[in-house]
Amino acid sequence: MWTPTTRKQHIRETSRYQTDVTDEEWLVIMPHLPSANSTGRPRAWPMREIINGIFYVMRSGCPWRLLPSDLPPWSTIYRWFAKFRDEDRFAKINHALVMFDRERTGRQSSPTGAIIDSQSVKTTEAGGPRGYDAGKKINGRKRHALVDTDGRGLVLEPHPASVQDRDGGGPLLRISRRIFPFIQRVFADGGYAGEKVANATLIAVEIVRKNPDQIGFAVQPRRWVVERFFAWIGRNRRLAKDFEATIDSARAFLYAASVILLVRRIARASWLSKQTLRYQIIEMLANVRAIQVSGHSFANGASATATARLRPSGCL
């Protein structure tokens, strides 16, 4: 509900575009970005301006070549985006921020419950993998999303729309076992019923069915959380359709949209001062580095937090 207090919390004072990151938001995302090399050619543009350019494309939906002239050259911004895409940089940032935000709200860093659903969108003349979703009558791609019970994006995966939910749900759950190993129960709609999804992993799949006497629209328990997530990321015009020629680029933009949500949520926490935010980020990075030194990484499924803190619990 919008009140004078909530409006004040959501006002983002920027000197140029509303997509530019504020000082508080930059404190959140900066530690996860590559630092400048000590040798070789120095960077011509600060990394903050590169992130501003990527977020501008995400939010406005404009082509790379139509970026404003007061941002770095489009070729520079796109080169960094391609580098982040190939490194799964946005997925790794999303993974770290999900756990940080959960701990900030007093929850376990790794969730034990999640909700799964998909969204079919049209593609464009850019080409790339696509398929026909006979249920939605859409020729394009399908975005599979696994979110926690608060709506944070955990695993996001695009694929041709011709892949049915029961066929795409299993691989998504298997991916989640590597990075969020303590998920015990997943809520889903009737499209995920059957043995393919139920037997894909050890995760219990609970089908949330609508009331047989239901007439018209009704909000379904649990399932509305993932629908709200799709609405949140849908504010970015780059995601109005799937404009990307490759699945990797489509995945990178999905995770970038999730990162925007988390960065802004953490930065505008009214009780969190800038100094406290700095200390908590330093602690989070220390936990990430401790796991990496021990020989684990995001790619092989280790959660970026201390092992002792990642334990199953009764809370979702």
Walk me through the structure.
The protein is of the alpha/beta class. The chain has one domain. The chain has 10 helices and 6 strands. Strands 1, 2, 3, 4, 5 and 6 form a 6-stranded mixed beta sheet that branches. The two termini are 25 Å apart.
Show the helix and strand layout.
Elements: H1 4-10, H2 23-29, H3 47-60, H4 74-86, H5 89-104, E1 113-122, E2 131-133, E3 138-148, E4 153-160, H6 165-179, E5 185-188, H7 195-198, E6 204-207, H8 223-233, H9 247-267, H10 274-293
Parallel strand pairs: 1-5, 5-6
Antiparallel strand pairs: 1-3, 2-3, 3-4
In short:
With 316 residues, this protein is of the alpha/beta class. The chain has helices at residues 4-10, 23-29, 47-60, 74-86, 89-104, 165-179, 195-198, 223-233, 247-267, 274-293; strands at 113-122, 131-133, 138-148, 153-160, 185-188, 204-207.
